[in-house]
């Protein structure tokens, strides 16, 4: 049995060991004053005609009647609004360039247990997908591995940097488990058809796979205990190093949350029971049918990374808007939600996933929270990002309207307090061919 | 315990299937009979009043009304009254009305595989033979305001099969779905799909087949048309001499070449799947050389690079709003494509190629405003009037004008707002989707489903699943990264 004291001590150690975030590592973090703006802070009231001061990568002041510090670059935002940069809670951004070109795809490792792999070493800072996403207002994403039952460790990254380390806000952000039976593949028109199996067979296979995860987690707990014991008493026999179990120690100790990917009601229920049993800190991802389990999710305080929203209902006889309405029903039941696109090239459409959920029942301000402060809270970085507050990292977008609306344009973009040009591969090709004689 | 659970779920699965069918059937009957059962709906007239009407042809009418009589738009404007005192009246105060949405690239309702992928030229096969009117995705698309779909053969072959242009008249016999005088069309395909370069590994492994390069794709199309021209000449020679020569023998009928001859005679539209600028220009030039016109370029993701050439050929471009990077030939795709092509004079439509995306084409149109600053009406045309023009059906559909079919959508807010909800979809004056009714029916459908499951359980008793029975729960749909594929 672990005591709370041990847990707390461990957390302290982890916090101390976390790399310091220095926005100036990027270079060029100047002082800015955004003036005359409508400031949508998300966590506090909207400030009309306000000023935001950005210095050394951070928001140093927010309010009305602030004067710009000497030497600050002043941006007049009359008629414009400032929002926190948006956060996509489930992507493969930085791991894939061209879906069908295997050499450019690093999303899924081989084997069932990939607990020891972590995306922060494989993120391609020069991926053309990154500027494409950020010029549409997405400044932070969860980049996650996809392969196997235990897919590996995700990282929360800011979408600007020369090397992955510049970008990483938190790694590991979570361990990812693809719940058996949640079937993240799908039907394809070409290639050999998957053999049809009986219900009993599918169940047996599912049980077997869940059991294999259970065993791994139990082994990891034992491995961690043995390691601790030997640290205290060096006379104990030396253990062989097992990197996979090593990676799972913080998971079984509740220090790193587990994102469990599951869509169907039965899988979600099974995952909740499993998380309870193993005492792991669960976050549900996907959750197409999460609305059917909303009360249970609320009772267990399990947040849901909803999405993609823009997809078909899971079952033939579901209401046509089942997936659209899901987030609203969850929020109404008191479940904390965030949105995920589960994509890379289409991270830029994150606001429209949230917007569609809002069209079908989710309150507009809840939709905005679900792409800003909620994911920041879910991943434990609400002290750094997710809202416009003094002391937070200056990840900001200046827009001519509601960022969830398609017709809204981003006018200025700041990541880590650096003003980012609103260009991408797409704008460059556009300018080039617009000028074709 | 496990076995028992398995048995129960097997039974559930069957019952679900039954209930899903029943539900589809019920919805279908419901929507078809709605117009006939409500007293006022016996009227030949339907009046939608007090709406903001986006006509797609002549601007926006505030506080306007649309009168539909016998399925056709009889009047549009601010001062429109029903002639019939029993006319059905829909009060659309505060709401927005657009023409029915038209999808110029769809594979919806195709029963089975969209590709007859065994040959490189399959101009003899017809999509119209395999439309499944019970596909549940049809109702879901209606709920997104879709009224017309250009249902195309897949893109596995350089020259694919013949298309069908349908109205989504869910609940009506399928023979009433085809737009009778829509010019017939055919699917062509260039690039990675016909050369099958993405299909040689892993789950997609399929046998190699000619062509395997863009060179082979050009040659396949060239060869087919040269054969078609010979065949056409043989027929012309026969026709010329059959009156004078009783012993003249007609050429042997060739269904594959018949379709190509129709293209050469301008009677059949080419809708060609394409991506790269070079292959687009190749096809246009080949048409010049061999005497065929390309009606639309489909996907045409690099169309913006050669918009001038496309416009010069009076060829339409039907593209995605923002798809890119899912394969090599889509790596230079940009969301400004629609705007750039339009600015050079190309008639542009935005399509779905996906039952999912077809549910929200109205929002795809808004992206043409965001990326490249297309005007609001031009953006709306990209999912209404422009696809109608490209399909040669703009005399019937595509805008809210007197004389056209009464195909309209009522939205809760401006159709380009992400917060809008399509509330009613009307085809030829009949309501095929009504959100209020849909919401009302849900409790009843749920009850009916439970009843069906109960009855099924009682009838079957506890016994094991039959061999080869499918698991109860369908797998989730492919993730967006699987999009387009071979379609």
Helix content of chain B: 25-40%
The largest sheet of chain B, given as strand count, sense and whether it forms a barrel, is: 8 strands, mixed
Unreliable residue stretches of chain B:
1-41, 471-483
**Structure summary, number of beta strands of chain B:** 17
**First and last CA, distance of chain B:** 44 Å
Write the layout of secondary structure elements.
The complex is a heterodimer of chains A (about 425) and B (about 475).
Chain A: H1 4-17, E1 32-39, E2 47-55, E3 58-63, E4 73-76, E5 81-84, E6 86-91, H2 129-134, E7 138-143, E8 150-158, H3 164-167, E9 168-178, H4 199-232, H5 243-252, E10 258-262, H6 265-278, E11 282-286, H7 294-299, E12 304-306, H8 322-332, E13 337-339, H9 350-359, H10 364-369, H11 373-378, E14 396-399, E15 410-415, E16 418-419, H12 425-434
Parallel strand pairs in A: 1-4, 1-5, 6-7, 9-10, 10-11, 11-12, 12-13
Antiparallel strand pairs in A: 1-2, 2-3, 5-14, 7-8, 8-9, 14-15, 15-16
Helix pairs in contact in A: 4-5, 8-9
Chain B: H1 2-37, E1 45-54, E2 60-69, E3 72-77, E4 88-91, E5 96-99, E6 101-106, H2 136-142, E7 146-151, E8 159-162, E9 164-167, E10 185-189, H3 192-195, H4 214-241, H5 255-264, E11 269-274, H6 277-290, E12 296-299, H7 307-312, E13 316-319, H8 337-343, E14 348-350, H9 361-370, H10 376-381, H11 385-390, E15 408-411, E16 422-427, E17 430-434, H12 435-460
Parallel strand pairs in B: 1-4, 1-5, 6-7, 10-11, 11-12, 12-13, 13-14
Antiparallel strand pairs in B: 1-2, 2-3, 5-15, 7-9, 8-10, 15-16, 16-17
């Amino acid at each position: 049995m672990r005591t709370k004291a041990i847990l707390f001590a461990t957390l302290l150690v982890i916090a101390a060991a976390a790399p310091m975030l220095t926005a100036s590592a990027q270079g060029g973090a100047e002082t800015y004053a955004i003036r005359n703006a409508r400031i949508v802070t998300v966590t506090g009231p909207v400030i009309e005609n306000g000023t935001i001061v950005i210095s050394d990568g951070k928001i140093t002041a927010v309010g009305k009647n602030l004067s710009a510090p000497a030497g600050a670059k002043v941006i007049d935002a009359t008629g414009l609004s400032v929002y926190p940069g948006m956060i996509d809670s489930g992507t493969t951004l930085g791991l894939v360039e061209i879906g069908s070109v295997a050499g450019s795809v690093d999303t899924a490792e081989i084997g069932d247990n990939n607990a020891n792999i972590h995306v922060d070493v494989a993120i391609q800072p020069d991926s053309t997908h990154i500027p494409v996403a950020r010029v549409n207002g997405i400044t932070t994403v969860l980049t996650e591995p996809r392969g196997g039952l235990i897919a590996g460790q995700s990282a929360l990254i800011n979408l600007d940097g020369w090397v992955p380390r510049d970008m990483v806000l938190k790694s590991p952000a979570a361990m990812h488990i693809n719940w058996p039976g949640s079937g993240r593949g799908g039907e394809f028109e070409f290639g050999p058809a998957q053999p049809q199996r009986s219900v009993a067979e599918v169940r047996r296979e599912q049980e077997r796979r869940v059991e294999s995860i259970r065993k791994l987690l139990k082994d990891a707990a034992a491995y961690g205990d043995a390691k601790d014991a030997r640290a205290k008493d060096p006379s104990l026999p030396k253990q062989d190093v097992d990197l996979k179990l090593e990676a799972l120690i913080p998971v079984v100790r509740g220090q790193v949350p587990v994102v469990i990917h599951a869509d169907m009601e039965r899988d979600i229920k099974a995952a909740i029971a499993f998380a309870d049993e193993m005492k792991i800190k669960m976050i549900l991802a996907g959750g197409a049918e999460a609305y059917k389990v909303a009360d249970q999710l609320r009772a267990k305080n399990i947040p849901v990374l909803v999405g993609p929203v823009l997809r078909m209902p899971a079952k033939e006889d579901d209401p046509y808007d089942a997936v659209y309405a899901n987030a609203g029903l969850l929020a109404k039941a008191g479940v904390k939600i965030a949105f995920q696109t589960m994509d890379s090239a289409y991270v830029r459409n994150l606001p429209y996933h949230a917007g569609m959920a809002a069209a079908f029942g989710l309150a507009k301000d809840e939709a905005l929270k679900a792409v800003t402060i909620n994911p920041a809270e879910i991943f434990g970085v609400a002290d750094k990002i997710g809202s416009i507050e003094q002391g937070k990292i200056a990840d900001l977008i200046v827009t001519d309207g509601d960022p969830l609306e398609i017709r809204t344009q981003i006018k200025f973009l700041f990541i880590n307090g650096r003003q980012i040009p609103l260009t991408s591969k797409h704008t460059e090709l556009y300018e080039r061919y617009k000028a074709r004689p | 315990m496990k076995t028992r659970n398995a048995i129960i779920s097997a039974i559930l699965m069957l019952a679900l299937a039954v209930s899903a069918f029943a539900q589809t059937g019920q919805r279908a009957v419901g929507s078809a009979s709605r117009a006939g059962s409500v007293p006022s709906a016996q009227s030949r007239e339907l009046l939608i009043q007090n709406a903001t009407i986006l006509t797609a042809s002549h601007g926006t009418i505030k506080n306007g009304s649309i009168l539909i009589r016998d399925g056709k738009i009889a009047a549009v404007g601010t001062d429109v009254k029903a002639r019939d005192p029993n006319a059905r009246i829909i009060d659309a105060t505060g709401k927005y009305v657009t023409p029915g949405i038209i999808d110029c690239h769809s594979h919806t309702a195709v029963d089975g595989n969209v590709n007859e992928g065994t040959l490189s030229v399959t101009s003899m096969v017809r999509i119209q033979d395999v439309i499944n009117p019970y596909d549940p995705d049809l109702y879901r698309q209606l709920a997104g305001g879709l009224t017309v779909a250009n249902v195309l053969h897949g893109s596995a072959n350089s020259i694919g099969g013949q298309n069908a242009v349908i109205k989504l008249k869910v609940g009506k016999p399928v023979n009433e779905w085809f737009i009778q005088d829509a010019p017939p069309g055919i699917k062509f395909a260039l690039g990675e799909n016909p050369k099958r370069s993405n299909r040689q590994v892993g789950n997609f492994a399929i046998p190699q087949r000619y062509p395997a390069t863009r060179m082979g794709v050009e040659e396949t199309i060239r060869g087919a048309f040269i054969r078609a021209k010979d065949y056409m000449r043989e027929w012309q020679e026969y026709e010329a001499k059959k009156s004078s020569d009783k012993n003249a023998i007609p050429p042997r009928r060739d269904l594959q070449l018949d379709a190509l001859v129709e293209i050469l005679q301008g009677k059949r539209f080419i809708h060609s799947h394409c991506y790269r600028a070079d292959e687009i220009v190749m096809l246009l030039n080949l048409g010049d050389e061999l005497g065929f016109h390309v009606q639309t370029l489909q996907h045409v993701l690099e169309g913006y690079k050669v918009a001038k050439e496309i416009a010069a050929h009076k060829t339409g471009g039907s593209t995605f709003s923002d798809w890119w990077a899912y394969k090599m030939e889509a790596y230079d795709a940009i969301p400004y494509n629609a705007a750039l092509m339009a600015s050079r004079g190309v008639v542009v439509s935005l399509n779905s190629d996906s039952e999912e995306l077809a549910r929200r084409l109205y929002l795809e149109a808004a992206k043409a405003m965001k990326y490249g600053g297309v005007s609001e009406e031009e953006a709306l045309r990209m999912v209404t009037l422009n696809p109608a023009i490209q399909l040669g059906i703009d005399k019937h559909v595509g805008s809210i004008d007197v004389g056209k079919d009464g195909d309209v959508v009522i939205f809760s807010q401006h159709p380009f707002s992400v917060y809008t909800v399509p509330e009613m979809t009307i085809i030829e004056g009949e309501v095929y989707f009504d959100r209020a009714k849909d919401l009302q029916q849900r409790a009843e459908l749920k009850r009916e489903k439970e009843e069906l499951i109960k009855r099924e359980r009682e009838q079957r008793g506890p016994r094991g699943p039959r061999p080869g029975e499918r698991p109860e729960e369908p797998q989730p749909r492919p993730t967006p990264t699987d999009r387009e594929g071979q379609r």
